[in-house]
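idk why but the lab printer keeps eating my pages so im just putting this in chat instead. protein + flavin mononucleotide:
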Amino acid sequence: MSDSRQVLLIVYHSQSGTCARMARAAAEAAGEGGEVEVRVRRACDAAVTDLAAAGGLLLVAAENAGYLAGGMKEFIDRVFYPAIDRELLLPYALLVSAGNDGRNAVAQAQRLLRGIPLTQATEPVICRGEWCEAHAQRAGELGEAFATGLSMGVF
Ligand SMILES: Cc1cc2nc3c(=O)[nH]c(=O)nc-3n(C[C@H](O)[C@H](O)[C@H](O)COP(=O)(O)O)c2cc1C
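predcted complex ->
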């Protein structure tokens, strides 16, 4: 039997493991209700074909040196024109890990994604400081909210 659920694609880039943990927390919460099919890809492994198969995109990455982490930037740069060619109009959400800021990473990701253009489904979430339970909770809440919205067709 074919699976008619929307696909929520979670793409992450992580150096130390923090963003990987955030992506996992978001994925677990998003998949809990079974409303959507959750697919998780590292940014270096993700392709425009993954985007084309998805109903929504959650990006998880850090701010490094006042910029969106390079691994995530490389992913967006790589799929930018192929996504435009395919006229992909996905809703997206951003989950950013940062030492003490994160706003530039958000702004740069928004600028790039506007160019495709993908549409922002929810307010970006920035988790600052060391990995902690509060970050797991915020990542989970974002994943769950995005999954629910996708399954209800609100984006
Ligand atoms: C080279 C480097 C540059 C960083 N620059 C910033 C920065 O500009 N602003 C900030 O808030 N945090 C900065 N950080 C902290 C990271 O955003 C934070 O440690 C994040 O959790 C890393 O996630 P990841 O290891 O999963 O990629 C930097 C960390 C590194 C290693």
